[in-house]
Amino acid sequence: MELLDLIRAGVLALIGLVAAPLLGRLVHRVVLKYTDVQRAMIARRIVFYTILVLTLVSVLRELGFSLTVLLGAAGILSVAIGFASQTSVSNLISGLFLIGEKPFVIGDIITVGTTTGEVLSIDMLSVKLRTFDNLYVRIPNQMLIQTEFTNVSRFPIRRYDMQVSVAYKEELTRIQKLLFDISAANPYALEDPAPLVIFLGYGESGINLQLSVWGLRENYLLLRNSIASDVKRVFDGQGVEIPFPHRMLVRAPTKR
Amino acid sequence: MLGMDDGWWGNYELDIGERARWRIGPLQLYVERRRAEWIVHSLSSDDSRDALCEIEVPTRSPLPDCVESHRFVQRATGGRVTLSGRLADRPVVIKPAIPLSVPGGEEVTLYVGSPVWVQVAVGDPPVHLLEIPSHRASDTWVGPNTREGEACYGSRTLAQVDFADCTIRPHRAITEVEVRNKAADTLVIEQIQLPAPLLALYGGNGGVLWTQSMTLTRDHREHAARLTIGPAAPTTGGALHRIGEPRKAVEGNMIAQVFNRLWNF
Question: What digits encode the pLDDT tens for the residues B232-249?
Fold first, then answer.
């Protein structure tokens, strides 16, 4: 190996290391104009890693390594690695399905099992979430393909179902009207789709009803909190009793 | 100092340490001038039918509880405060309190109201400080289903046919809508989607706010009606001053397409 080969290999490596991130960023910017963040990120990674691999191959060739031998060794190695990394490959393929199916995009809020958070990135092996209490959660792609998850922010409006119970003495038509009036007065409750009051059943302590109101996705928490306080305020003002379970304590007779 | 046309909008002068108060229907607005800062306090009630309009410049009345305050700092404050208005930042879906029918061949003029946003600017030339809705209008959704559509504000109206019957409220602008039903069958107007962000706001005598007039035409055998925005404010309002610009510009021939979709029957 001559000094010239070494210099040539060094220059190639330098060019590759500089070009890979630069071209990656350029492709990211161009792709972003025509598609979403997720696809732009994937395009950037593909460009970045392709240039890195090509640089490595060129450098090795300049250093005098035979590519045929290297590819043969890589073939045997890939079988060994394949067996050892079944889970990773499965995650990788699941990742491709997720990107193709696009059940969520970066920035969406999803619930997987008991975890709810904002999607930070959809990578080849896993999806990264930021929960509302600011924790970083990594979910393997394979798990997302196999289990049920909910995309909370997919549609622009959401319905909030509030369960409310009233005493048996209350007249249902009056309660229904009060609940509709409360929804109409709440600015976060959509007028259309119209709110619903659903009879759920005669409960242990009172009549169980459900008030279903629609709100804009971004106002969901405001709607949820305000409608609950509105119901309590109006019911208190109108003398409507919200029942709660009564417990009777009977003292056991003391032994003499 | 009074606002223009006896309305709340216009220019006012404040000395350092003074405070001004405006009551614009459900909105109470206070602007306080200090040497190097302006403080804007606001408080809005839920009563959208409130028709009270009061102007006290300067005022000695104390600030009510629960006001929302914003501070704006400047190297040195000028004495001028300018109040102006704008229409809503989303379309407003106006539902007549009682469903309205226009028989075939009839032409009528309806007067409908929509909420106004108050803009506060200071100095000369005016520097915009903030914009406050006169009251939090109710949200609503217009679209073919719960997945596609547009967020709008909802508003109830009596849709009067005589301007003299309209209740003038300082926080609501009146839109004159000319309805032309050229078809043979009856046109039932259940709701009107007013493209508020595309409309300019005008102030008139007696503190009445107006928007550009609109025409709704339903041609023969057409199921939908076509809506066009008039070039200026209606003549019913007398001499009017333009006090607020549209939020969005209408692009040429877009009007017909947009409003065919925006009006619902």
Answer: 777 777 788 888 899 988
pLDDT band of residue B201 (cuts 50, 70, 90) is very high
What is the separation of C-alpha B248 from the centre of its chain, rounded to a whole number of angstroms? 15
For A33, A169, A175, A227, the CA distances from A242, given in Å and listed in that order, are 55, 11, 11, 15
Do the Cβ atoms of A190 and B93 come within 8 Å?
no
Contact A189 B138 (CB under 8 A): yes
Task: Provide the 3-class DSSP secondary structure of residue B258.
Answer: helix
CA dihedral B238, B242, B248, B249 (to 10 degrees): 80
What ipTM was reported for this prediction?
0.78
**Chain A residues close to B26, C-beta within 8 Å:** none
According to DSSP, the β-strands at A196-202 and B192-194 are unpaired
How far apart are the C-alpha atoms of A130 and A137, rounded to whole Å? 6
Q: Which of residues 162-201 of B touch A (CB under 8 A)?
A: none
What is the token pair recorded at B6?
Answer: 């006896």
Per the structure block, which two tokens stand in for B174?
């009146």
CA distance A141 to chain B (A): 27
CB spacing of A192 vs B141 below 8 angstroms: yes
CB contact under 8 A, B138 and A215: no
- In sequence order, what are the residues at sequence separation of 6 or more whose Cβ sits closer than 8 angstroms to the Cβ of residue A173? none
Asked if B127 is an interface residue toward chain A (Cβ–Cβ < 8 A), one would say: no
Q: Is 50 exceeded by the pLDDT of residue A231?
A: yes
| Contact call for residues A24 and A44 (beta carbons, < 8 A) | yes
Work out the minimum CA distance from B146 to partner chain A, whole angstroms.
Answer: 7
Distance CA(A240)–CA(A232), nearest Å, equals 9
Q: Does the beta-carbon distance from A193 to B139 stay under 8 Å?
A: no
Q: Which residues contact A74 (CB under 8 A, 6 or more apart)?
A: none
Give me B142's structure tokens.
């217009």
- Phi and psi at A31, nearest 5°, equal -65, -35
Residues β-bridged to residue B122:
B81, B127
If you search the block for the tokens 């290999």, which residue do you land on? Answer: A9
Q: From the CA of A243, how many Å to the nearest CA of chain B?
A: 29
- pLDDT score of B248: 87
Interface membership of B221 toward A (CB under 8 Å)? no
Contact A187 B149 (CB under 8 A): no
pLDDT digits (tens, 9 = 90+) for B153-174: 998 877 788 888 888 899 999 9
Q: Residue range A5-21: average pLDDT?
A: 89
- What is the C-alpha separation between B183 and B189, in angstroms, rounded? 14
Residue range A138-157, pLDDT digits in tens: 999 989 988 999 999 999 99
Q: Distance between CA atoms of A85 and B150, rounded to whole angstroms? A: 48
Q: How far apart are CA A26 and CA B162, in angstroms?
A: 63
Neighboring chain B residues of A194 at a CB cutoff of 8 Å: none
Of B136, B138, B146, the CB nearest to A157: B146
